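hey can u run this one w/ 3-methyl-2-oxobutanoic acid bound, need the structure tokens asap thx
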Amino acid sequence: MDKLIIFDTTLRDGEQAPGATLNEREKIEIARELVALGVDVIEAGFPISSKGDFAAVKAIASSVKGAIICGLARAVTKDIDAAYQATKSAKGGARIHVFLATSKIHMQYKLKKAEDEILRLAAESVRYAKKYTSDIEFSPEDASRTEPDFLFKVVESVIAAGAKTVNIPDTVGYAYPQQYGDLIRAIKENVPNIDRAVISVHCHNDLGLAVANSLAAVRNGARQVECTINGIGERAGNASLEEIVMSVKTRRDIYPGVQTSIATRELYKASRLVSKLTGFVVAPNKAIVGANAFRHESGIHQDGVIKKRQTYEIIAPEDVGFTGTGLVLGKHSGKHAFIKRLEELGIKLSDAELSRSFEKFKDLADKKKTVYEEDIVSLIEDEINKPAQIWQLDSIAYSSGTNVTPQATVRLKYKGKITESTSAGDGPVDACYKAIEKLTKVKSKLLDYRIEAVTSGKDALGEVSVRVAADKRVATGRGSSTDIIEASAKAFLNAVNKLSVRPSKSEILHL
Ligand code: KIV
Ligand code: ZN
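ok here u go:
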């Protein structure tokens, strides 16, 4: 087997996506899912960048077992010290990832340093990191726009200094597949000690080519790919993990012998989790994990799939953990059928959670004629995976319309008691958020609000995702209901509940 190492950077480059702030607890939850997925390396953060990032990387290193935990560092000693301190307790091994720009434009304008100095700093930083660990990765930042001869020299000298992985970033997403593949081949042919290191690639998606470029690199000898769940990341994002993994798996003819350790059946779950916690909704047409990725609308396609699935499906939906969109349960379904369906969906609940979610399912089945698997997943996420429920939504009533001032009355349960408030607003959602603010006294700012239908049809569940800021902290919230104002209230309250919990040190943003 020719192993392709999957280096996940959802928690570092992914979290650099504008608006994708995650707190420590959320990062640990994602790291655990990445281990379940089978990624080899988790880049957990950039420890020197903030106290919060340092604490989160440290918490992941000490509590998440099953993958190498990596910390990013610039080529300076204080960054390398911080990366080591944050990752040193990792049971599955710690990696220090040092980067330094090597392209002319970065060296001249950003770093104001000449080639010789860059070469010296690159090698020195790797030698310095070596006193901590032998697992050192070096990235010549903006490698794809670096003069090839200089790039070869840098790569050779960092390997000589002790780097075990050399990562070739396409930092600004400028590369083209053929050209980038040729660059990887040229590195193999022109760097004399290249056999002593793994060639890694790290592609950004500014031209929509991050996955294509990464795959071209794999064809030319790269054996580590850096990627993120759902392709989230700086600007237009990074190469998407699920697309890389499924391409290599589906087109074995193009990557003979190349294999990853990814448990592909976890892909859909990992995608949902990252989407839920970052508040970044996955586009329905997103390859592999989009809601439409396995839906067939045209009659000709449906007919073909019924006769032979492979006529229009190159991947079996269950191979990525997507269990289909069929009618699963209705209002006459009993608890036994519900439990069985949850088992099939890979959802494990405690007895108390099961009773609560079954009740919620019955309520939903009363309102909605057909209950789909996506509805059940959304309901469980909404009702079970929520943080400490300091404030609970008891009921909501609102009025709105043309020439009517929108108004909402919200009743919340707090420490067993019901409190109620009425507010007017610019619309029913605004009125309802103002009423919640009056009751909870959490003064917050709504940064983002999104709504999407979980399934199709007039009675579809509406799923609302919000990002809310208060006191230098940001929290995301999700809520679903057949009533979109109620879904909006639940999502907002979900975020407010997170903000009401006393913050751990790492949750305070150090911007
Ligand atoms: O895009 C980039 O160049 C990076 C490096 C730090 C690897 O993220
Ligand atoms: Zn990057």
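The two ends are 45 Å apart (CA to CA). anyway lmk if its weird
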